[in-house]
Amino acid sequence: MYRPEYFRAPDLEAQHDLIEEYPFGLLTLSMFGSPEAVQLPFVLDRDSWPYGKLRGHLSRGNPIAKALSENVEVLVAFTGPSAYISPDNYESQPHFPTWAYAAVHVKGRPRLLDDTRTVRQLTDLIADQEARLAPKQPYVLPRKASALFDEYLQLIQGFEIFVTKIDGIFKLGQNKTPRDMAAQAKAFREQGTESSVRMAEFLEKHNPFPKHS
Asked: Measured in whole angstroms, how far is the alpha carbon of residue 72 from the centre of its chain?
């Protein structure tokens, strides 16, 4: 990952936070000399050595599923909030248009999971996502075996990745003045959308100016 030092992720916790908030990652690897990729939801186990562990699943019919058993190194990219930055919204002038964003790249070598651990990965993933739908009564996987669930389980392959390297870029205006980035955050809040407000929150968190009240 290319990243100027002033855009470095604050710490490992901040990178883990981004993965958990935006768990739909892009897994990439090389197969037969060609780059391949698949987008998947992941569960993060923060406390696994050395930088955490990712757990996911994909269709057994995907050729990538077989490749994951061959000790190949993969990269998983997680993208947090991102937005176009308009020069018109800075307090000072002149500026050029740019893009603000946060992203985390994770590297490691996958290991396939057996059915029991794959069910645990599904259970944890569903529990995490259902919790975001509160106050809805959460859906849970049926505890009793069924022909339908057994059939579904045979169609997917679970895997885990012990993270050997993690790197993040939080390009959120740290190279601008506090007054300029406060103006950008204010402009995002005034847009009023969920994504624009989240962008404003990231700008406020990672720049030295008072938070919105």
From this structure: 21
Any idea which residue has 């389980």 for tokens? Answer: 153
For residue 207, the model assigns a pLDDT of 86
User: Are the C-beta atoms of residues 114 and 36 closer than 8 Å to each other?
Assistant: no
Rounded to whole angstroms, how far apart are CA atoms 158 and 124? 13
CATH superfamily for 5-173 is Electron Transport, Fmn-binding Protein; Chain A (2.30.110.10)
The verdict on pTM exceeding 0.70 is yes
Q: Where are the domains of the chain?
A: 5-173
- In the sheet with 98-112, reading across from the earlier edge strand, the strands are 34-41, 24-31, 74-85, 98-112, 156-171, 53-59, 43-45
Separation in Å, CA 19 to CA 29, 107, 125:
19, 13, 13
Angle 7-50-118 (CA atoms, 0-180°, nearest 5)? 105
Low-confidence ranges of the chain (pLDDT < 50): 212-213
Q: CA 27, CA 41: separation in Å to the nearest integer?
A: 10
pLDDT in tens, 13-33: 999 999 999 999 999 999 999
